[in-house]
């Protein structure tokens, strides 16, 4: 049923409005008017105070005065757009000049109302603005249920993810290993029009080149030794849905060319086949590598980078969202207890404090492992601090991932040959069986400077 009325019965009773005005009496009056209609209202007497409220939670709408000291309504709007793009802002002013209104609306302000504000016009504009938010429109938030957070930075990223999900543009998710890049990719898929189609993920760094090519594009019977039948690749398996390419920075150059062609032509050609197959796939990729440096080193194609990086979502390390650690730990311990030890109820206060203050170099993946270890080893309903400390030490001594182990070996090996040759790159490259260009690329990747290994160099710079 569609109604054009704006009675209180039609107001969303749960909508949260942040009201900003440096005139305290008007702030109180307008706040009472909004609350009488059923809105939940938070008030701020300045733009700076309003931003502090945004750090603790995301409202559904901001209603701000234009003329305020220090930070006016437009400046506040611009900062809100930086932090929470898509959050609707309505600006009120007693100086309702046309230039102000034009400037505000061109920058993306949802509405511009003059004081004294007409009651019906105010509620009408608020209703229209709230229709663009999940709280008022009844939008299902299940798309993001796998991502547990109270971090303002993560909320900003999720808002961007929700907005980009509605289009088919390629998304590059960056961030350190274990920060949840695949979870974010899955959330984007769930929020998109492709949600009822497949979401398929593959790690580009986990397979040798020929096997990765076959997995992505498929192959025909007899295409290579062992190809005893036709094989449908992941592009075809994900048709209509989303293909997530994790660790895209590790994809070999030859495959990068084939991937670029597939994205440009929206067609793939299986190995050993002469026929092309049309595919309709939304591509999301991820990497923990610096692709800018990889392009500079000739290890990643610039044209492919710009094709993949239409929108970049950068996930922060867990240590930068410490407020999420207790929340995640509580969720994870409940899940682990259900699987293994139902009597486990949670962590002690001291244990939570230790978890929240840890550095988490392995990010959320490391936290998952620590919680699993604690649940496996505890004999009491409340996990004590000592058990958390033990699990953290065990994690630090745990076997590294294959990629981390390979990187560690490479760096140790390069340091060793540079020491042997006293920083002579030509000799070191010869020992390593690599040409000078490739050897220099390896040195750059591991941030090693040959000159520091020469006689009389400052040994404090060596790794």
TrEMBL record:
The keyword Ligase does not apply. GO terms for biological process: phosphorelay signal transduction system; regulation of DNA-templated transcription. PROSITE patterns: RESPONSE_REGULATORY, SIGMA54_INTERACT_2, SIGMA54_INTERACT_3, SIGMA54_INTERACT_4. Keywords: ATP-binding, DNA-binding, Nucleotide-binding, Phosphoprotein, Transcription, Transcription regulation, Two-component regulatory system. SMART domains: AAA, REC. GO terms for molecular function: ATP binding; DNA binding. Residues 16-130 form the Response regulatory domain. It holds the Pfam family Sigma54_activat. The modification 4-aspartylphosphate is found at residue 65. This is Two-component system response regulator GlrR. It comes from Halomonas eurihalina. The lineage of its organism: Bacteria, Pseudomonadati, Pseudomonadota, Gammaproteobacteria, Oceanospirillales. The gene is glrR.
